[in-house]
Amino acid sequence: MAEPATVRAAAVQISPDLASLAGTEAKVLDAIAEAAGKGADLVVFPETFLPWYPYFSFVFPPVLTGGEHLRLYENAVVVPGPTTERVGAAARRHGVVVVLGVNERDHGSLYNTQLVFDATGEIVLKRRKITPTFHERMVWGQGDGAGLKVVDTAVGRLGALACWEHYNPLARYALMAQHEAIHVAQFPGSLVGQVFADQIEVTIRHHALESGCFVVNATGWLTEAQKAEICPDEKLRRALSGGCMTAIISPEGGHVVPPLTEGEGILIADLDMKLILKRKRMMDSVGHYARPELLSLVLDDRPAVPMRGSASARPDLSAVPFEGPADDADHAADAPLAAGTDQRIAVFRGPSR
Fold it and tell me: Where's the CN hydrolase domain (predicted)?
């Protein structure tokens, strides 16, 4: 897929409807239409915006969060499902790529999930945050390496990570090695205070420089009334302020437009894709500036599943070259695998000569 010369990106800083999934979904659909009306090709929403980020888990101990946790389950998004169908239809109708953070419900578990809808409305990437952070581990399960991929979209090659996944340099490198042109970052916002906003800015600007790509980051916003609704204790409620840094960063590490740090709004910027080559001519972290014979990354990109059928429990050895004597080769396929053998790359070798 040919990458466009210019992409108009929209990063949405927005508050959820804390009462229902339907209310927050309506705000998403309205924001997509508004951004598209401003000529956007790409629309990015905050981390787990549907139905809302689990702020309750940050300010209350686990023993007090059962009711809100269950309510999050009741309002979570099934993928695919009615909500994703409506968002996909909006992406298709307006001809925009949409990146949306959701609380995904998969039977009895919740996941921090990033969804990429292409301009056709198709979900081209569903990935789960690989390691929820601190309080989040009481809310979400862990993702896997299957989601660490860059996908071709109408706006070019696009990769995504959520929040503190950006502190995992190997996760970032996995996307860099797949040559992302636009990196989408998503953070909750309205959390921790100004120090969080400062940390977000450092993180996304560094990734843009290191990857040689554009970074489009969206953070959420809470009104004063919403903060009070989440946490009546005024002292604890202080932890639900600041931390907003909706921003669009160039491959040279600078803001394309001034960031949005207060209130709701849509940040719009035109991305000149030629700047990617300008940066990489000088420093390509996964090309001429790399030393793969010294340092390289191994990614297990298999989906994590709780059960595999017996047919998949043993490898197909028919295509594996055997280096031992012919009589040993006749019985190699029947030999039991030693405990701990990596069945993806099982290779039997004969005695050394």
Answer: 7-273
So what's the pLDDT on residue 127?
A: 98
Active-site pick, 136, 163, 231, 280 = 163
> What pLDDT score was predicted for residue 2?
72
CATH number, domain of 274, equals: 3.60.110.10
State the catalytic residue, choosing from 25, 27, 47, 165: 47
Active site residue 47: yes
- The total of structural domains in the chain comes to 2
pLDDT digit string (tens) for 57-111?
999 999 999 999 999 999 999 999 999 999 999 999 999 999 999 999 999 999 9
Q: Which of 126, 129, 227, 280 is catalytic?
A: 129
Structural domain range at position 322: 307-353
Judge if 34 and 106 occupy the same domain: yes
pLDDT at 315: 60
Confirm whether 224 is a catalytic residue. no
Sequence-separated contacts (24+) of 221-225 with Cβ below 8 Å:
221/13, 221/14, 221/15, 221/189, 221/190, 221/263, 221/264, 222/15, 222/55, 222/189, 222/190, 223/15
Q: Which amino acid is at 339?
A: A
Enumerate residue ranges in the chain where pLDDT < 70: 1, 312-353
One domain for residues 314 and 277: no
